[in-house]
Design brief:
It is a single chain. This protein has 868 residues and is an alpha+beta fold. Helices cover 28% and strands 23% of the residues. It contains 19 helices and 37 strands. Strands 4, 5, 10, 11, 12, 13, 15, 16, 17 and 20 form a ten-stranded mixed β-sheet that branches. A seven-stranded antiparallel β-sheet has the order 6-7-8-9-14-19-18. Strands 21-30-31-32-35-36 form a six-stranded antiparallel β-sheet, with helices on one face. The longest helix has 22 residues. The N terminus and C terminus are likely disordered. Bound molecules: alpha-L-fucopyranose. Alpha-L-fucopyranose binds next to loops.
């Protein structure tokens, strides 16, 4: 029998026991004052305090502890900090350490089989179609490659009986994890941060009296790797990544082909350092700094010849010449330049440990926790997605396993897109750079898949991808046979243009949009009943219908995504003044896409036929057919109230509670329906203990980070929305947040907005116009339009949006009165106005939306001159 704190392993059985009962965990006495920063996640006990689990221990044994540990990351390197007193554990990640090797998963039989698959679907022989897809179309190998852990840095400190005033926290204001406690009158402090400018993780150990710090540092990994301690003071791990499962069609195995190195430099001040076996041993130091660097040989998805050792020393050597104050200052400056752009105050915060706050969130007395969750989402995005790094995967950056849930890959039928929902609205546009780089890669690998599998031009990606940018259908027909993942991924790229108006950027992404559109020009088929153009084979993500599979032609989501894709491509080409012929083709195709349909239960139909009420999983987590309400633009409470009502009916049928990400999606949707109280009711579930772990990671369950990002986006959507060519202030404010403040939120058209509200009413909105474009602002039934100039700041007071007069910050000279043309934003500046086409009823091909062009009677074009 092996005894471990937190886990008792008896003859292969794993029994969880409380950390405090562990034989090695010190007794915790007394309570420290809560951290000064309101932007802290904090706790009064370590996440774990026992030696590392043996490598052959079942990995799920540590899972409950792992979701108590606190994440730090610089976009590329990540660590989970456990905060043990005797046994500190830092579980490490590097974002290119995935299993396998460059590969092309195309199934050479697919191209010949697809016409028959289409015919079977047209004949409604769905199970036969699924069978054929399973036999001839799915990728080889059938699964993509998983993201994997680097391993752990274990720091062992002297055994002690008890400590006083133990506390650990993660301060979002400085992106730093802390641990502190008092032992024998000496205060011990630990801080951990992941520096983007220096590309190292810094661990700093100090004590209030000299000569007090002794430790043993070791690396351990489940990877094929060697570990050594060097006389110069490093711990070095060198290895190769894990093998993936299966083989390609030509029989090539997925043997690991990446080399990697992780290196820890141990830098004591005072005391002694020596090595013993594979450990660095420090005795009686005044302070110790440990610098952690890691890299792999991954250069691109098809080139794994980079030198990991050279990369590691390129980071570690300069960092170790800086003192820790410099490293910290540069880290904080770099991080705050992003994080500080947005502040949010939703009301009081409870001054109790964060896990207690999560457990009690439902009682409604802690609105500050929602603000903390919002800022945590922004923190996690900054920490897991920086320019030059890989995009945030299913677990962001943090994964302790060699084979994590769903491979911790990129699931692009919702999850990866959801990761980036808050990027633009919460003023973190740069965090999208890795996503854009990935889509650019996919446009190359996906062109190969389009050609080899479909005989089509352009590019395609199905429901998942990985480090190797695989684009074929995987896992099985029910999940993988969905050709619209790549198209969806282009939509946030276009959104970024609408927010930033950067023409150079538009030129860079335009080929990605064009290629995605081309694939569908080449592969859409005409359905026999209405002669609409539809995808086939396809599916409504992961939701089986009543005919024994999910395979179908023309699921509603595909039409909605493609309407946006073609619309974006048309606007992009127009803005760039290119491809006039193609624009016409795209436009003609777009008008022939299947429109949204309302079914017999008053719901928005998920499929071409009205199958919804007979589908076996009526509460299915995916709400794909509501894409057009959020994040898409097909349906809108004002412009298309009937369709919005049908979307609402679908949401009611689906129910409020689902997996973490699916719950978060529902909140965004209710916010778009302008029902803040309903959105808040679901938020209570998302932020409660069933969907939020003690470290505030989202619980699918298990941990999946999309729920964090979706939840952050939802809170932003409750406060500010931009759709239909207008910016809506406090459109879904719940009564639980009667007063608050937000600064720095972003909106389409290049606007940055501060909001303050009391008693549920808008007190003041300050709008900075970054691009000088027309501004259409709505608060409830009041709609006002302004022309602005670049750099102008406009302050509006009260629910009726009165421009503030006689106030210095209102730069009158830079705000011009509106042209007074109408209540609609002028259409004459190509690319200058967003949302035009969303107000175009041809968008959905239905007459019934026409009425919704009426502007409510209380709205006015702002007679701005003279008022200020
Ligand atoms: C999709 C979802 C699952 C999970 C997985 C990673 O398949 O349906 O719930 O989130 O992605």
């Amino acid at each position: 029998m092996v005894r471990l704190a937190g886990v008792l392993v008896v003859a292969g059985l794993v029994v969880a026991v409380a950390a405090s009962q562990s034989p090695t965990a010190p007794r915790l006495v007394g309570e420290a004052a809560p951290p000064a920063s309101a932007l802290s996640l904090w706790y009064r006990a370590p996440a774990s305090d026992h030696p590392l689990l043996p490598l052959d221990a079942p990995r799920q044994a540590g899972t409950a502890e792992w979701v108590r540990a606190l994440p730090v990351g610089n976009g590329r390197l990540g660590a989970m900090v456990f905060g043990g007193i005797v046994h500190e554990r830092l579980q490490l990640n590097e974002d290119t350490l995935w299993a396998g090797r460059p590969y092309d998963p195309v199934n050479p039989d697919a191209k010949d089989a697809l016409p028959e698959v289409r015919r079977l679907i047209a004949d409604r022989k769905y199970p036969d179609a699924a069978k054929l897809v399973g036999a001839k179309v799915m990728s080889k190998p059938l699964a993509q490659m998983p993201y994997q852990t680097v391993g752990d840095l274990a720091l062992t400190f002297p055994q002690v009986e008890s400590v006083e005033n133990y506390q650990r926290d993660l301060d979002l204001a400085t992106a730093t994890a802390h641990v502190s406690y008092v032992r024998g009158g000496v205060t011990f402090s630990r801080e951990v941060f992941a520096s983007a400018p220096d590309q190292v993780i810094v661990v700093r150990l100090t004590a209030s009296r000299p000569g007090q710090i002794s430790l043993e540092a070791r690396l351990q990994t489940p990877q094929h790797a060697t570990v050594e301690a060097t006389a110069a003071g490093d711990l070095v791990m060198r290895g190769v990544n894990g093998d993936g499962a299966g083989t390609t069609a030509d029989g090539r195995p997925m043997t690991g082909a990446l080399r990697f190195e992780a290196r820890v430099r141990v830098l004591p001040t005072g005391g002694t350092r020596r090595i013993s076996g594979d450990a660095q041993i420090v005795r009686d130091a005044d302070a110790v700094t440990l610098l952690i660097a890691a890299a792999t040989s991954h250069s691109t998805y098809e080139d794994v010849t980079a030198d990991p050792a050279a990369r590691v020393s390129a980071a570690l050597d300069p960092a170790s010449r800086k003192n820790v104050d410099t490293l910290r200052t540069e880290h904080v400056r770099d991080y705050q330049q992003l994080f500080n752009r947005v502040t949010l105050d939703l009301g009081p915060s409870k001054r109790v440990p964060t896990d207690q706050r999560v457990r009690a969130f439902g009682d409604g007395s802690d609105p500050g926790l929602a603000a903390l969750y919002f800022q945590y989402g922004r923190y996690l995005l900054i920490a897991s997605s920086r320019p030059g790094a890989q995009p945030a995967n299913l677990q962001g950056l943090w994964n302790e396993s060699m084979s994590p849930p769903w491979g911790s890959k990129y699931t692009i039928n919702i999850n990866t897109e959801m990761n980036y929902w808050p990027a633009l609205s919460t003023n973190l546009a740069e965090t999208m750079d890795p996503l854009i780089a990935m889509v650019s890669d996919l446009s190359v690998t996906g062109a190969r898949t389009a050609r080899q599998m479909y005989g089509a031009g352009g590019w395609v990606a199905h429901h998942n991808t990985d480090l190797w940018r695989a684009t074929g259908p995987i896992d099985g027909p029910q999940w993988g046979m969905w050709p619209t993942g790549g198209a969806w991924l282009t939509l946030p790229l276009w959104d970024r243009y609408e927010y930033t108006g950067d023409r150079g950027y538009l030129e860079r992404i335009y080929p990605l949009l064009k290629g995605a559109a081309q694939f569908f020009l080449d592969t859409l088929v005409e359905e026999p009943t209405h002669h609409w153009l539809v995808t086939s084979p396809s599916l409504s993500p992961e939701n089986p219908h009543q005919f024994g599979t999910s395979l179908a032609a023309g699921p509603a989501m595909d039409g909605q995504i493609l309407r946006e894709l073609f619309g974006n491509a048309i606007e992009a080409a127009a803005a760039l003044g290119v491809d006039a012929d193609l624009r016409q083709k795209w436009s003609a195709t777009r008008t022939r896409l299947a429109p949204p349909q309302i079914g017999s239960a008053g719901q928005l139909q998920e499929w071409l036929d009205d199958w919804d009420m007979q589908a076996p999983e009526i509460h299915h987590r995916h709400v794909s057919h509501l894409f057009g309400l959020f994040p898409g633009h097909d349906f809108d409470v004002r412009r298309t109230p009937e369709l919005a009502a049908a979307a609402k009916r679908s949401l009611e049928i689906r129910g409020d509670q689902a997996t973490g990400w699916a719950t978060a999606w529902r909140i965004n949707l209710w916010a778009r329906l302008a029902d803040g109280n309903h959105a808040y009711e679901i938020l209570k579930f998302l932020l409660g203990p069933e969907r939020t772990y003690p470290n505030m990671f989202d619980a699918h369950p298990p941990f999946q980070i999309d729920g964090n990002f979706g939840g952050t986006s939802a809170i932003a959507e409750m406060l500010l929305q931009c759709d239909d060519g207008e910016i809506r202030l406090l459109p879904a404010l719940p009564s639980a947040w009667p007063a608050g403040r937000a600064t720095g939120l972003r909106a389409r058209g290049g606007f940055e907005i501060d909001l303050a509200w009391t008693r549920g009413a808008l007190e003041r909105a300050t709008v900075r116009s970054l691009l000088g474009r027309p501004l259409r602002l709505r608060r409830g039934n009041t709609l006002r339009t302004f022309d602005t100039t670049r750099g102008a700041t406009l302050t509006l007071v009260g629910d009726d949006l009165q421009p503030q007069s006689g106030v210095a910050i209102l730069q009158v000279d830079r705000i011009k009165p509106s042209s007074g043309r109408s209540n609609t934003v002028p259409d004459d500046r190509s690319g200058a106005v967003y949302g035009r086409r969303h107000r175009d009823r041809r968008q959905i091909g239905e007459q019934r939306t026409q009425a919704d062009y009426r502007v409510p009677s209380s709205s006015t074009t702002m007679p701005f001159a003279g008022t200020v």
